[in-house]
Design a protein that fits this description.
This protein has 112 residues and is mainly beta. The protein is built from one helix and seven strands, in the order E-E-E-E-E-E-H-E. 13% of the residues lie in helices and 47% in strands.
Length: 112
Amino acid sequence: MDKPVITTAIPLRRYRLGEFTLTVLGDIESPDDCNYRYFMAVIRSDDPEPGLFISAEEGEGDDLVMRIMMHDGNEVIGRSGEWRDVSVFTDKAISIVSRVLNLSDEIPYQLM
């Protein structure tokens, strides 16, 4: 997997979803070619490395590009200016993670 490189970031929120911890980052500095607004890293409880990432990247105009990154590649999910709000980004990202990891029966629990 082409993992994103994050030099510095500030944790904004943290959730528990089943056996996974979801951490939302903001104020991200990265040498990557894209400019990340928000980032969600998904970590299985016993694994020290994230296995799934969802990013909101600056796009054209006011829209942010949402991208999912996994072991088998990455894909743009969509574009929206609504994702500039961290709560809207977080809700959408949790929904995607829940669907991708088949956790629809789990309820996210906010830790931070």
